[in-house]
Design a protein that fits this description.
Layout: H1 20-30, E1 37-41, H2 48-56, H3 58-64, E2 71-77, H4 86-100, H5 103-106, H6 116-128, E3 132-138, H7 141-144, H8 151-163, E4 166-172, H9 176-179, H10 183-188, E5 194-198, H11 204-217, H12 226-233, H13 237-253, H14 259-282, H15 286-296, H16 304-312, E6 316-319, E7 322-325, H17 328-339, H18 363-370, H19 373-384, H20 389-396, H21 400-412, E8 416-421, E9 427-432, H22 434-450, E10 458-462, E11 475-477, H23 480-486, E12 493-497, E13 503-510, E14 517-520, H24 523-529, E15 536-541
Parallel strand pairs: 1-4, 1-5, 2-3, 3-4
Antiparallel strand pairs: 6-7, 8-9, 10-15, 11-14, 12-13, 12-15, 13-14
Helix pairs in contact: 11-13, 12-13, 13-14, 14-17, 15-17, 19-21
The structure holds adenosine-5'-triphosphate (ATP) and magnesium ion (MG).
Length: 543
Amino acid sequence: MNPYTNRAMITHRKFFFNRKSEIRKVFSRIGSEIPQSVSIVGMKKTGKSSLLFHIFSREIAQKYIKNINDYIFAFVDLQERKSMNVEQFFDLVQREIRAQMPGEIAKHVPEAENTYDGFHQMMETLDSMKKKIVIFLDEFEVVVMNENFGPQFYSFLRSQASSFNVAYVISSREELFTFYKRKEIEESNFWNIFTSSWVGLFDRESSLELIRTLSSEEGYPLGEYSDFILRLAGDHPFYLQVACCAVFDFLACHEGISEKDFEQIENEFKTESWNHFNYLLDRLIERERKIVYDLAMGKKVEYPNEIQILENKGILRKEKDGYSLFSETFSEFVREEKSKGSIVVDKELPSLSPPSPPPPLSPHEFSQVFSSKSREKILRYLAENEAKVKDLVDLLGITRPAVETHLRMLLGFDLIKMRPILSPRIRREYSISKKGRQVLEVFEKMGKKMEPHEDPDFLEVRVGPALTRDEGKHIARISKSTKGKMGIESGSLVILESKDGKSVQCEAKTLRGEKGDKVLLDGETMLLLDIRSNDTIILKKTS
Ligand SMILES: Nc1ncnc2c1ncn2[C@@H]1O[C@H](COP(=O)(O)OP(=O)(O)OP(=O)(O)O)[C@@H](O)[C@H]1O
Ligand SMILES: [Mg+2]
């Protein structure tokens, strides 16, 4: 049987190839102590859904996440839901979460209404059972482009992620943050909770593996035709499947392939791919199209920012001496389109003001990395030395698992490198990467500009409760970083001031069984300040 007939999401592990670094990156986020959200971006058919579904599989997840039983994963395909409303969204997601709950958990989670409150209650109940929820939302642009989903929806999703152990792994064809400039979404700050990751071309080794393994297992090895297949498809997973499919079908009915037969197979490939190529070209902006055309004509290209974007999109690949389009047939297609006059790129584009390299990390990623002093120290240390975990434990005076968690996150962001040393026994040595050095440099510059006061005298904080179990306690949560910034400790006296100038003095305490310090506000204080949950207040140091 031809193993290359799949044109939609790969759901069986046997047919899934490559994507190791993407998988590692996603698990480093959702597997962190407080699961973090990820946005997977890729052009049409680069394998977003397949990747999401692969990660969703428990069999895979348990390799990357230690305490997998603490997690509930839910996978929702939004593709066919173009006109749904918020209620239907909650219905879908809640049903999926419920379907994934182990029986003994489901017994204790009441059926929820398909409303904001209903969803909140479900998350709260699962949170109280110490469950971490990861919701996979495939083709999230369907929601973004749907007018039924307004600002409240995005703020709500964000609030669930900040109140509970809830994270989202979403996929879309465009970078949601930059592409869909919807004011209400931007205002909700929803995007700030995501790190984004592109899925583009395969690496060459994985392409060859795809070509060789599946075909050999079925008795018609394609290895000797790999040059031909790669010429048609490049390292694009979808086109590789289309090309392998055509060659496999041919071999299954004929003895070998002659020159003339290659032509026939190529035509078959083109028939299936031309429409998709058209779509790819259509989605590019003018400057990107100019680069694509220049490459098809064998010219050298400039515009580093666009080149980076096209590489992310899987349209071109880096070669030893420059860039080329992802496949020769795609080049041919571009040249043909140009000769038909359907690509207008003759107009000279204005030259770019000095091209700036892409920032090493997004602002959100940046603050994630440097929200911990320990990570900053590790990076600084590794900038000067290679180190083993033990060296870092000694340096920081924290536990080995804590150091390992920091290292995993830094590895996930490619800021450090790990080198296994196999003798005399297995050890790992860590060092800083090129990107790590860049990020550290930016941080040093920013640090000088942005934080003139290490220890500010006041800060704005938000009043809880975020959780029902806090009700009656009325807590102004102070995060570790706020605490650090202001130099507050348990037992410190602080002044709380409402926006309209009322103030009280109280004591910062660590609540038993809870992480982080909080300032307790009893009901009377709340009355005095005339504040309620979610209000912002000012926290001042007593002199
Ligand atoms: N990791 C992979 N291993 C093997 N084949 C893959 C892989 N990823 C993608 N493919 C091939 O590409 C096809 C499209 O994959 P998939 O549907 O996951 O892409 P997509 O990016 O979600 O597409 P769309 O933009 O249409 O939603 C698959 O049917 C398969 O043939
Ligand atoms: Mg898809």
